[in-house]
Each structure stands twice: as C-alpha cells, then as structure tokens.
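Morning F.,

Quick status update on the modeling queue. The single chain you submitted on Monday has been processed. Sequence for confirmation:
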Amino acid sequence: MANKLLNVTMTKSKIGRLRSHQECLKGLGLRKIRQTVDVIDTPENRGMINKISYMLKVEEV
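Structure tokens below.
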C-alpha cells in the first residue's frame, strides 16, 4: 500500500506564535519561511497541519 504524500510549505513566520504552534512546525520539519517538505498523510500529521493551517500551504502529491 502506497502512502499518500502532502507537500507542505511554510508561508508565515513562527516568531510570536504560540509555543504549541511552533512545536507543530518543528514536528513537520519546517524551519524557514517558503521551505517545503513532503510528509506522509497520517492522522498525526493532519492534526498538526490543521492546527497551524493559517501559516501553511498544503498540496497533495
């Protein structure tokens, strides 16, 4: 079974955000603005993405 991938791009700065939101960025592997990572579409990753959706751009691969 092939896992679906999500292309996640950080669009806004993490400075001044809640600590939990910064930890979500770290958990997704995002460090810089306009950095893009591919993450596996799991409920855990979806939860982090939904929590900080206002600072991300998400595309299905």
